Amino acid sequence: MLTLLSIKNFALIEQLEMNFSNQFSIITGETGAGKSILLGALGLVLGNRADLTSLKDKEQKCVIEAHFDLTKYNLKDFFDANDLDYEDSTIIRREILPSGKSRAFINDSPVNLTELQDLGEFLIDIHSQHQTRELTEEAYQIEILDAIANHQNLLSEYKQHLSAFKSVKNELKKLQTEKESLSKEADYNAFLLEELLSANLKEGEQSELESTYEKLNNVEFIKENLDKSLALANEEEIGIIQSLKEIKNSLQKVSNLSDDYKNLSDRVSSVLIEFDDIAKEILLQGEKLFNDPEKLELVSQKLQMIYNLQKKHNVGSVEELLVIQNDLDSKVVLADDLDNQIKKLIQKQEEINLVLEEMSSKISENRKVAVPVLVDQIIEVLSQLGMPNARFQFEIKTSDSFLPTGKDEIQLLFSANKGTDFGLLKKVASGGEMSRIMLAVKSILANYSKLPTIIFDEIDTGVSGEIAQKMGDIMKVMSSKMQVFAITHLPQIAAKGNQHYKVFKSDKEDTTVSELKLLGTEERVIEIAEMLSGKDISESAITHAKALLN
């Protein structure tokens, strides 16, 4: 419920703050006094779009803040789902900056307008004579019947199964599409895989093959240079090894004279050992070399096969070809496994389908039982509201597919007078009739479900006398279960409120501002008397106002 509303720099309001009770509150005021401004401010808190025209002072920001008591609304799951801090006393704030930008906060956490709108649906229902279209919508008519049927647990379970059904259906469609695609590519994929498998590729073999190819393709050139290197190393008179031996002997002769010479001698010894080993390795490599045209041809063919595959698959290494090979292998295996997966999903879909059929049938039965209960109650309320001949029919048809709330497709038919045929509610009911029907529905729903705060905005337009009295009585009864506001011009309704607020204009220096005031007992008498007789209040109007209040 709304416990506090604070408005700053909005339209004709400079600064306003008002506390509200959890009962029946009346708001009155002359036409143009600013009642619509209050609704506009609430609309911003509930997520309506705003612009700079909302600012009274274009140089200052507009701030609208509403406090709500959420103790009985079970909204913690909503806050968790939207990653918001839950508080029993929740504060929604909307700011419009002079730049035209808008910001919104829930318990000081920034939110977007969608989140604000989603939360607002749980908090306030602003209802006017021009906002009865909701009653003509099938989803709302089903919601009314479901409240009377009192099968929320069944509906919740149905929705869970429907969600699972849709997930299975989507997965099945995905696999079937994948199978169709794989089937078209199956032969080509199998050919590509066989081609790669026959190449018998191994990681790292390309560089090894390329090295082997270079050796085999350049045997004479390599042999010539190895022999030349070996000759330079081992020549008896001036070979490198012989020269190193002589250097070693010379240094050994002076090595005992200084550590510097000894170090040089040791280093030459190490070089001699290393170079001797190099010479032996050159000899060994030379002995390994021989012409092998057949092996050269095999290596050349294998390399050409690798190069062709790399070009075909647009890659640059054997490792990348192996990745493609594994992927193709997976596709071939997947194509074989898809049939089993599809078969299992079809079976699962059929099982859930049977459950949904059973549940939707039970939901439909509950609604059919609820129809006469709802119709009787609406007719009873409307009879008090001057529509004694109103009649209703619910046409319930079964859809071929599962809908969000079952398989029922509903049309609400209405006849206002004896002897007239039934027609679709949205086509045959007048604006005044729709307002009274909506009031009747809301009053009935208040007995079955937790409704948000409701604001009736002049839905009493066009009625008076006894009917107005009955409308006030109905709202009063509703307020025992929920917070109700009524913006009204009728004294009969105004007198029913537990609290009475007046919207009025006043002049402050060279500007006009709208203000809201909670009226005391005597002020209520004067306000209602003025509603009865105009500005020139008579004694009889005072007496009548006191009688209404009593």
TrEMBL record:
Pfam family, one: SMC_N
Protein origin, superkingdom: Bacteria
Claim: Coiled coil is one of the keywords in the record: yes
Annotated RecF/RecN/SMC N-terminal domain residues: 2-509
Entry keywords, A to Z: ATP-binding, Coiled coil, DNA damage, DNA repair, Nucleotide-binding
Stretches assigned to coiled coil: 158-185, 335-362
Function: May be involved in recombinational repair of damaged DNA.
Similarity comment: Belongs to the RecN family.
Protein name as catalogued: DNA repair protein RecN
